[in-house]
Write a structure and sequence with these properties.
Elements lengths: L1 E6 L8 H17 L4 E6 L17 H9 L6 E8 L5 H14 L4 E6 L4 H7 L6 H18 L7 E2 L4 E2 L16 E4 L6 H8 L2 E5 L3 H17 L8 E5 L8 H12 L3 E6 L6 H11 L1 H5 L2
Parallel strand pairs: 1-2, 1-10, 2-3, 3-4, 4-7, 7-8, 8-9, 9-10
Antiparallel strand pairs: 5-6
Helix pairs in contact: 1-9, 2-3, 3-5, 6-7
Length: 289
């Protein structure tokens, strides 16, 4: 099973001045330790379960471009970009820029958005759930078109682009991998089957994830998609250092379902030191699963 590191907590000793060095140190430790993927959140306000807006939050793609200069091989993306946050043409350009500057290491993670408070707080429109999913699919189509040789117009229900021009092109071909986050059975997993290279599910238990994967496989049948072409990933709140044997036993059960990657996050005020410990103590055994 592949290891991914997700950086979500930005409340660190030393305040704002410490964030750059701390994030850079964690990214370098992950990169040098052979971690497959590094992600950050894409929010304007910190999530309520991590302290809410009173706690710090940095803009996601600024962080990723900064970390691209600190690393050499690790895949970089958000987990995940809410579709309401940026116009899709600008999102495609933003991710393409990350891809070029990182020498082809960008990952596009997207979702339908859910954090209503930050939208109202900063004056960003927050459409209905059904409309957000419509915009999600159109955004995926726009990104894929902008990363192709097709520079013609795009005509959708919600977005109209006169020229889908992206120059310079992405180094990743046919474009950065697409990950859709979320586990909604009727809409999200259907879009995964139709469009995504990766899905990301909450590790809410082996039985629950098994069910979600069965639903995804059903959508793949409907879409005439080979399920094996989608990398199934999970994100888990468990600290793998707290009880490594128990963590790895749980990962074996998820791997038996076809899960190929797990995202974990630093449970420490020293994210670089935490990543180094995970790389040394957990990753070799995880690689063997």
């Amino acid at each position: 099973m592949k290891l991914a590191v997700h950086l979500a907590n930005m409340t660190l000793p030393g305040g704002p001045a410490a964030l750059g060095p701390a994030l850079a140190g964690a990214a370098r430790a992950a990169d040098q330790g052979g971690v497959e993927t590094l992600t950050v959140m894409d929010h304007w306000f910190q999530m309520e379960n991590l302290g809410g807006p009173d706690e710090p939050m940095l803009e996601g793609y600024s962080v990723l471009n900064f970390l691209a200069g600190q690393t050499e091989r690790i895949q970089l993306g958000t987990l995940v970009t809410g579709i309401t946050y940026r116009h899709p043409g600008l999102l495609a350009k933003t991710v393409a820029t990350l891809d070029v500057l990182s020498q082809g290491r960008a990952l596009l993670g997207v979702g339908a958005a859910w954090y209503e408070r930050e939208h109202h707080g900063l004056g960003v429109p927050y459409p209905s759930t059904s409309e957000r999913f419509e915009r999600l699919e159109e955004t995926i189509e726009i990104c894929r078109q902008m990363w192709s040789a097709d520079t013609g117009p795009y005509e959708g229900t919600h977005y109209r682009l006169a020229e889908t021009l992206n120059n310079p092109p992405t180094l990743s071909q046919p474009g950065p991998p697409l990950m859709i986050g979320g586990s909604g059975e009727k809409k999200t997993l259907r879009l995964v089957a139709r469009h995504a290279d990766m899905c990301n599910l909450f590790a809410t238990g082996v039985d629950e994830v098994r069910h979600k994967i069965e639903v995804l496989d059903g959508h793949c049948d409907t879409e005439n998609r080979d399920p094996s072409t989608i990398l199934r990933t999970i994100i888990i709140a468990t600290d793998p250092l707290a009880d490594t044997d128990a963590f790895l036993a749980e990962m074996e059960r998820y791997a038996a379902l076809g899960v190929g990657q797990v995202f974990v996050g630093p449970a420490s005020d020293d994210p670089a030191g935490w990543v180094e410990s995970v790389v040394q103590q957990v990753k070799p055994r995880l690689d063997a699963i």
